Prior knowledge:
This protein is of the alpha+beta class. Helices cover 26% and strands 7% of the residues. The longest helix is centred in the C-terminal third of the chain and has 27 residues, at 196-222. It contains six helices and three strands. The chain has a domain at 71-215. The N and C termini lie far apart (78 Å).
Amino acid sequence: MEETPDGTPVGVDDPYEIAGVCDHLTDDGRCRFALAQSGTDPEFAAARQADGYACHVGEAGDWNACPKYRYTTDGRECVRCGLEEIRLAHEDTRPLLEEHHLSYGGDSASHPATGTTHGSGTQSAGQPGGHGKPPIEGVSDSAGSPDSEESSRADPEATGPAGATSHEITVSLCRWCHAKIHNSIARVNDDVNPDPEALAAREGRRSKEQAELEFSTATELDDPWRVSYHSSWSAPNEPHPDR
């Protein structure tokens, strides 16, 4: 099984079995990297330009063959248990999901496995959300995950230790699955249900979200200005009912 620089498992034998279509592939099959970042690698961009900027690998191709391949998570749901992310607009709460690196896209030895979440900082193993016990809802909201924030900025063409992949490949894991991946033989592609604590945390946020929506609706109904405005408004070019 592949491992992080700290020697903890990442939950897959081959990251490319989990990875999907390249982030740089446009809907019409062109290479967005060559179109938008030609100055980063002029030689690569020129080769793609000569071929109409077509992706030289293709959607069903061997992504490992492209030096610019990159697959990063959208952060919507846990790839292992399916837990959905719920963010509360008016609360600075820690995300339910964390970014998990299957491949760091560079010299992994230079990227300590200390952690990022979708919008959080870093922390070390053994703290809530690190390699240790899964965090409790509402505790240490500034904490992160077991993967390195620096790794997201790694050179996509850099090569790591002998035989290591050189592309950045990330997926989303809920905090509970993330801890299990790094602390046990759990795998990213296990067919599992969300942890009970994860479900409780999600439903707690869902209840708050619903309460906020209900409060907003009630506030609008109780606002006399809104009632007066809407009752007196008429569509353009239509006579007011009192005229």
